[in-house]
Each structure stands twice: as structure tokens, then as C-alpha cells.
Specification:
The protein is an alpha+beta fold. Among the domains are: 82 residues, no CATH class; 133 residues, no CATH class; 59 residues, no CATH class. It is built from 13 helices and 19 strands. The strands form 7 sheets. It has a 7-stranded mixed β-sheet, covered by helices on one side. It has a two-stranded antiparallel sheet with strand order 1-2. It is elongated. The C terminus is likely disordered.
Length: 457
């Protein structure tokens, strides 16, 4: 059965995708060009990051061919993505032109990754192709290159160029234009909506002739220009940055020094050291207070965590000890006297130990804990708690003369126990328990149903 990839609920074979990286891996199939999606492929091709640079031209030709079959005008698409390849222009890599961040200090506000995503979605070079300029100018000026496509990588806005002037490119490679600045269109609410142009800042304009002039037709749209890399955290009125505090302290010192007082004032090296130390101490004080508060909170949280872990560990130890004792009680290998002897505490101590001991040899070798060792030892002992029917009274040796069958249940039970003891001692080779069981069978009216259990002996 041929592989298909579902797009908007419609299964499509690989032939219906402009780019197929691996025939057997549908995650590498991109840009569907079926009847419902070919128009989207034409519009989205410039934003697609999955198509390798070496495959861009072939993928664009496949989209153009399919679009023409559906009567879609591809003249701008051809000019943007295929004309340069026909003239031998090598595909250009993506370059970072802007990054989301806090530009309040520059009066530009905060620009988020979501804002940049909106710019990428709105960018259509067939409607407005952003030029690359030298410096920001609102009037006509030459374009030294054009922005072919935009994409987003995390919080970074990436651009790909085309038709870059060779001399301008040489100047950039020589390090003469290291800083760049993006101009963005804004909506009525002040949100950025699209890329107007990319300005390169730095050295003088290179001597280049024959460049295409650009004429901005903004239709009254507002725009802002932001130098990439100028972001700076903004201090509030109550919380200034350390450099600002130092600057204000030094400013205050000099204001006092040259205040016009009649008494002449001098400024020595010691004064410089003192003012610098005082300013640094004052600037660091709020930070130190925050660090101290964080350390205190961390210690408190660590202590709470340790208490919680100790409580949990103690509860787990208790549960292991209780489970072990319950197991022995169920097997009839535990009596209340063990509790009075402190054996329960011994079980808890052993349950807290994670050390193991090794038993057996070869394939039968195994490791068990100290608690498991004790439990297995006690399980191997004879059963301590009797089971089965029990006579109504325990023989205390207080029965003297008389006979069984007198009609007194307590007396009859006592004689039955006495007879069982005689049977044990008469050389019949049976234990007292066996003799007592026989007595219980002979006197069922003197027995209590049920079996003995730990805690009842």
C-alpha cells in the first residue's frame, strides 16, 4: 500500500508535494500542491525552512508548473524565486536581522517573538519587497539588495537576500557594515505588522553606480526603526541599575565640590577612591539585600524539603516493618510477647537499612535485606500460634479428682485437657497438640469454632 500524508483531512501521495526529502518518511514531505493547496504553496514557499538551499530552485519550478495548470499567475513567483537561479545567482543563506527583546530604553517598546511571527506571516515580496539600504531615510534612495524571504528561529528574525550589489557585499565582508537596523510598519495600536526595509549602519556609502532607486509608498502607515542590539534593561524610578547609581553618586560629589562655596575644596586620589567605594557599596546594597533574602528563602525551603523527605522515608520504613510482622502473624509465627520484648523496634531498625546480604551460589545466588533475612528465618520456625478448634478453657492443673461427663462444661473441658496431657505422656508417640485435637473431636460441644491467630495467644 502506497504511503500517504494527510493534509487537512485529505490523504495525499508523495507526488502531490513539491518537496519530498525521503520517500519512506512522510515527515519530510512539504508544500502540498494538490488542487486545494497549490495556491498556498505559491504564497508560502519563501517562508518554508525545511527545503534545503540546493533543492529550492527545483522545488520552486515544481510549484510553478503545478500552479500554471490551475491558472494561477506565477509571474511574480518566477521573478522572486526562479529568475536569479536562471542567471546563475547562488542561493543565499539565512542571516539574523533582528531579535525580540526590550527596546524601551530606545523608545521603541517591547517587541516579542509573537510580533516577529506576525511580520513573517505578513511578508509578501510580491506586494512589498523590503529593500536593503544604507542608513534610514524616508525619501528615495538606492537599494543595495532586496529581502527575498523572512522566517523565525525562536526569538530571532532571519532574512534571505537577493540581488545584492557586489561592491556593497565586499564592503560588508570587510567589516565596514557590522550593525543593521530594521524598520517595521505599525498598526493603529502600535504593534509591528511588517518589514519596511533593512538599513545597514556604519561606514560611508560605497561608490556604486546604476543602483535601482526605491520610492516608498507607505499609504500613510506609521513605522519605527530599531537598531539591532540596542536593547537595554530599563530601570524604574525606585530601582536604578548599578551604573546609574554610581553615575548619580559621582555627579552628586562633583556638584558639592563645585557648589560655589567660599571655602576652597580639593579632590585627591583618596577622595576618588572613597567616592568610588561609597558609590559601589550604595549600588550593591539593594542587590545584596535581594541575595540575602533569596538565600534565607532557599534555606527555609531546603529545611522544609528535608523534613518532608524524612517524614516520607520514616513512613516507608514503618510500612515495611508492619508488612513484615503482618506476614509472620498471618503464618502463625508471631505472638504478642514478641512486641513486649521489643522485637517490633528491631524490625523497624532493620527496615531502615538498605544493605543486602548474599545467599546461595551460581544461579541460585540472591541478595536480600537484613529485614527479609530475619523474616525468612522466623518463617522457617515451627508454627507458634495454634490453629483449628479451641477448647473452652485452658488447663491450669487445678482439676483434681472427678470424671468427665459431669454435665459441667468447664469441668468437662478441664478433664478433656487433662486426658490429652496423659495421652501425650503415656508413650503413644503423639504430641500434646495432637492429643488435644483428639479430645476436641471427642467433645465437640466443648470447642469454639475458628482458628487461633497471633494476638490471641
Amino acid at each position: 500500500m502506497a504511503l500517504t500524508k494527510t493534509v487537512d483531512g485529505k490523504p495525499l501521495p508523495k507526488e502531490k508535494f513539491a518537496y519530498v526529502g525521503d520517500d519512506e518518511d512522510i515527515s519530510t514531505w512539504h508544500l502540498p500542491i494538490d488542487d486545494d493547496h497549490v495556491d498556498s504553496a505559491v504564497k508560502m514557499f519563501g517562508h518554508e525552512k525545511h527545503v534545503p538551499e540546493a533543492e529550492k530552485a527545483a522545488t520552486a519550478r515544481k510549484i510553478e508548473t503545478e500552479a500554471k495548470k490551475h491558472g494561477i499567475d506565477t509571474s511574480n513567483f518566477h521573478k522572486t524565486y526562479l529568475a536569479s537561479s536562471e542567471h546563475g545567482e547562488a542561493p543565499r543563506p539565512w542571516m539574523e536581522i533582528f531579535r525580540a527583546g526590550d527596546y524601551i530604553a530606545a523608545g521603541k517598546g517591547v517587541i516579542t517573538a509573537a510580533d516577529l511571527g506576525r511580520v513573517v506571516r505578513n511578508y509578501d515580496p510580491t506586494y512589498h519587497e523590503a529593500p536593503e539600504t544604507l542608513g534610514h531615510r524616508a525619501d528615495d534612495q538606492p537599494a543595495y539588495g532586496w529581502i527575498d524571504a523572512l522566517t523565525l528561529d525562536g526569538d530571532k528574525l532571519l532574512a534571505r537576500e537577493r540581488q545584492v550589489d557586489p561592491k556593497f557585499e565586499e564592503a560588508r565582508k570587510a567589516g565596514k557594515f557590522k550593525k543593521r537596523s530594521a524598520a517595521f510598519y505599525q498598526d493603529a495600536a502600535g504593534n509591528i505588522t511588517g518589514l519596511r526595509h533593512l538599513a545597514w549602519l556604519g561606514a560611508g556609502i560605497p561608490e556604486v553606480k546604476g543602483l535601482q532607486d526605491i520610492a516608498f509608498d507607505d499609504h500613510g502607515q506609521k513605522f519605527i526603526e530599531v537598531d539591532f542590539g540596542e536593547e537595554n534593561p530599563v530601570a524604574t524610578a525606585t530601582e536604578k541599575t548599578m551604573p546609574e547609581q554610581v553615575k548619580e553618586s559621582v555627579k552628586a560629589f562633583f556638584a558639592e565640590l563645585f557648589s560655589g562655596s567660599a571655602a576652597p575644596k580639593t579632590f585627591s586620589e583618596d577622595d576618588a577612591k572613597r567616592i568610588a567605594t561609597e558609590a559601589a557599596t550604595a549600588a550593591a546594597a539593594p542587590l545584596q539585600a535581594k541575595v540575602t533574602a533569596l538565600e534565607t528563602d532557599l534555606k527555609a525551603q531546603t529545611a522544609k524539603f528535608a523534613e518532608r523527605e524524612t517524614a516520607i522515608a520514616g513512613g516507608e520504613v514503618k510500612q515495611r516493618a508492619v508488612a513484615a510482622m503482618t506476614k509472620l502473624k498471618t503464618a502463625g509465627k508471631w505472638v504478642p510477647a514478641f512486641e513486649k520484648m521489643g522485637l517490633g523496634l528491631v524490625f523497624e531498625e532493620l527496615a531502615a537499612s538498605t544493605k543486602t546480604v548474599e545467599f546461595g551460589e551460581g544461579d541460585k545466588k540472591r541478595k536480600i535485606t537484613a529485614l527479609e533475612t530475619l523474616v525468612e528465618f522466623m518463617e522457617g520456625l515451627p508454627k507458634i500460634v495454634p490453629g483449628g478448634p479451641r477448647l473452652m478453657v485452658a488447663y491450669s492443673g487445678g482439676v483434681g479428682k472427678g470424671k468427665a461427663g459431669t454435665g459441667d462444661p468447664l469441668s468437662d473441658a478441664a478433664y478433656a485437657i487433662k486426658d490429652a496431657r496423659k495421652a501425650e505422656n503415656s508413650g503413644k508417640g503423639i504430641s500434646f497438640g495432637e492429643a488435644l485435637a483428639q479430645a476436641a473431636q471427642e467433645h465437640p460441644d466443648l470447642t469454639v469454632a475458628g482458628s487461633g491467630a497471633a494476638g490471641q495467644v
